[in-house]
């Protein structure tokens, strides 16, 4: 028998009260599925118009009028609001952070520029501010940690700092420290203080039981040797014919070092 | 990717410039015929039989391919992650910086 049906029947008889988080996840799964279906049928319609040889203007106009994204953004926002401050809001905010920018950008050239990214940015800010102490915040921490380029390194670091200061879960704190320190690696504008903090973060993760400990050690090498303005560490290895050479053999020339593969 | 790099190497053939690869293919025998097919004339380190898990890319923190580092003539890292036109620009800038520095040094002699 369908377990959902069984659960539903049990609910009718007042036997089980749904745990709030579980129910919220059910709702969001249904909402996400509904969104995927709507996007698929919308894209199919666009493809039909193209096959029918409609003009680019006509197709764009149809896209603007019919894109489902905006409605869904509003629905996910409503979900986040309904559960504001509770763990149940987290998956709604994650969806908004990951999809709002793309969803609304897709909906049109005619949409207000800037509006979409701000919805997504706001979702990330809310997530890390209101849910800093939650043990459900791990995925948000990882994702935000990779967003230094879009949100700005300094902003991402301060968002992660609130998790580091407030979260009682050691594993999550280590994840957040690793993420905070990693933003410095791609950020040419990171201050000297931020770089020092990154070193301390990586050292702490390295000394912890975190599964990231081994990677932290590699990150320390990158932080101290592979940043812009540093002399590149030498490479000594064989070329593809088995002849040994060094990167420093090319001192005196401008060098592009290209990590590549034929795939 | 190859055509862009081929044209960069060709354009700067007379300049103090080198494109150095770090190849992360596991199987060198499979790769070798591809070098002539694609006219890959520039020299590459081999990252070893572990491919993308090899020691050079590991040490350099490479997690995506291709990854680019640009060094000036003193061996200082000056740009990272630049591709296409941005890579060309970074190289041209460093070459002109180097020329200026050297002509300045000659005047000073």
The fraction of residues in strands of chain B falls at: 15-25%
- How many separate structural domains of chain B? 1
Q: Output the helix-strand order of chain A.
A: HHHHHHHHHHHHEEE
Low-confidence stretches of chain A: 107-111
The CATH architecture of chain B would be 3-Layer(aba) Sandwich
The CATH topology of chain B: Glutaredoxin
Low-confidence stretches of chain B: none
Alpha-beta classification of chain A: mainly alpha
- Strand line-up across the major sheet of chain A: 1-2
Rg for CA atoms of chain A: 24 Å
> What kind of oligomer do you see?
heterodimer
CATH superfamily of chain B: Glutaredoxin
Number of helices of chain B: 4
**Shape assignment of chain A:** flat
Largest interface: A-B, 36 and 58 residues
Determine the structural class of chain B based on helices, strands and strand pairing: alpha+beta
Overview of the molecule:
The complex is a heterodimer of chains A (263) and B (109). Chain A contains twelve helices and three strands; from the N terminus they run H-H-H-H-H-H-H-H-H-H-H-H-E-E-E. With 263 residues, chain A is mostly helical. Chain A has two domains: 9-109 and 117-131, no CATH class; 135-233. Chain A has a two-stranded antiparallel ribbon with strand order 1-2. In chain A, a hairpin with a 5-residue loop joins strand 1 and strand 2 (244-246). The longest helix of chain A has 32 residues, at 20-51. Chain B has one domain (2-99): Glutaredoxin, CATH 3.40.30. Chain B has helices spanning 2-11, 28-37, 55-59, 84-108, and strands at 17-23, 44-46, 67-71, 77-80. Chain B has a two-stranded parallel ribbon with strand order 1-2. The mean pLDDT of chain B is 92. Chains A and B meet through helix 12 and strand 3 of A and strand 1, helix 2, strand 2, helix 3 and strand 3 of B.
């Amino acid at each position: 028998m369908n377990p959902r049906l069984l659960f539903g029947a049990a609910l009718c008889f007042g036997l089980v009260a749904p745990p709030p988080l579980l129910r919220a996840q059910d709702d969001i799964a249904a909402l996400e599925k509904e969104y995927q279906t709507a996007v698929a049928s919308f894209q199919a319609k666009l493809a039909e118009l193209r096959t029918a040889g409609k003009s680019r203007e006509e197709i764009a106009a149809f896209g603007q009028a019919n894109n489902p994204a905006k409605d869904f953004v509003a629905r996910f926002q409503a979900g986040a609001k309904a559960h504001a401050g509770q763990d149940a809001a987290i998956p709604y905010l994650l969806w908004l952070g990951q999809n709002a920018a793309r969803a609304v950008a897709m909906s049109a050239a005619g949409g207000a520029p800037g509006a979409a990214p701000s919805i997504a940015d706001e979702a990330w800010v809310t997530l890390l501010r209101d849910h800093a102490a939650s043990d459900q915040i791990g995925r948000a921490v990882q994702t935000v940690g990779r967003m230094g380029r879009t949100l700005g390194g300094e902003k991402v670091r301060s968002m992660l700092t609130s998790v580091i200061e407030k979260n009682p879960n050691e594993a999550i704190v280590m994840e957040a420290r690793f993420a905070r320190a990693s933003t410095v690696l791609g950020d040419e504008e990171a201050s000297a203080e931020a770089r020092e903090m990154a070193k301390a973060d990586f050292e702490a993760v390295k000394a912890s039981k975190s599964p990231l400990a081994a990677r932290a050690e590699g990150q320390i090498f990158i932080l101290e040797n592979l940043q812009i303005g540093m002399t590149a560490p030498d490479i000594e290895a064989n070329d593809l014919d088995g002849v040994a050479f060094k990167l420093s053999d090319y001192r005196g020339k401008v060098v592009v070092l290209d990590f590549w593969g034929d795939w | 990717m190859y055509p862009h790099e081929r044209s960069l190497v060709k354009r700067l053939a007379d300049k103090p410039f080198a494109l150095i690869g770090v190849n992360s293919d596991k199987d060198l025998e499979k790769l070798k015929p591809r070098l002539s097919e694609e006219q890959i004339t520039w020299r590459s380190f081999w990252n070893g039989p572990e491919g993308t898990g090899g020691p050079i890319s590991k040490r350099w923190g490479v997690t995506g391919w291709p990854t680019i580092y640009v060094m000036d003539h003193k061996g200082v890292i000056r740009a990272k992650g630049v591709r296409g036109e941005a890579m060309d620009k970074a190289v041209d800038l460093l070459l002109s910086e180097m020329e200026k520095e050297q002509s300045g040094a000659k005047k000073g002699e």
